[in-house]
Write a structure and sequence with these properties.
mainly alpha; about 5% strand; binds zinc ion
Length: about 120
């Protein structure tokens, strides 16, 4: 029978027990510690959830890329075009990184469900 619960450290190939959060040999983080549910952590998470979108909103408000792009001056317009292109590229990369992280999170949840049932 294949033992799916045996994990090896990615850095030093030490055999790890499923309950380990760090490799005992080299200290590499193996998996995330369980998330804290204490009231202080909850409050922090809720505050971030409220505040972060507003930070994004005000940051975009300070971005002058569109103003540059609408300018009649060729040079200014070119600067605006480059700014918009950079913003677009950055946004695509952000989406891509977000997508990878989302997939990794889903995969790790699936793995933990599978190991909980011992399949
Ligand atoms: Zn290790």
């Amino acid at each position: 029978m294949e033992n799916t619960e045996t994990k090896l450290c990615a850095m030093c190939h030490q055999i790890l027990k499923p309950e380990y959060y760090f490799c005992p040999n080299c200290g590499t983080k193996v998996q995330d510690s369980p998330l804290s549910t204490n009231p202080a952590e909850q409050t922090k998470l809720y505050i971030y959830s409220i505040v972060l979108p507003w930070i994004g909103f005000f940051t975009i408000g300070k971005w002058d890329g569109i103003k540059y792009l609408k300018s009649k001056d060729e040079k200014t317009k070119q600067i605006g075009f480059i700014a918009c292109a950079l913003m677009g590229i950055s946004f695509v990369i952000l989406c891509y990184v977000g997508y990878i992280q989302y997939n990794a999170a889903v995969k790790s949840i699936n793995n933990s469900i599978t190991s909980d049932f011992g399949i």
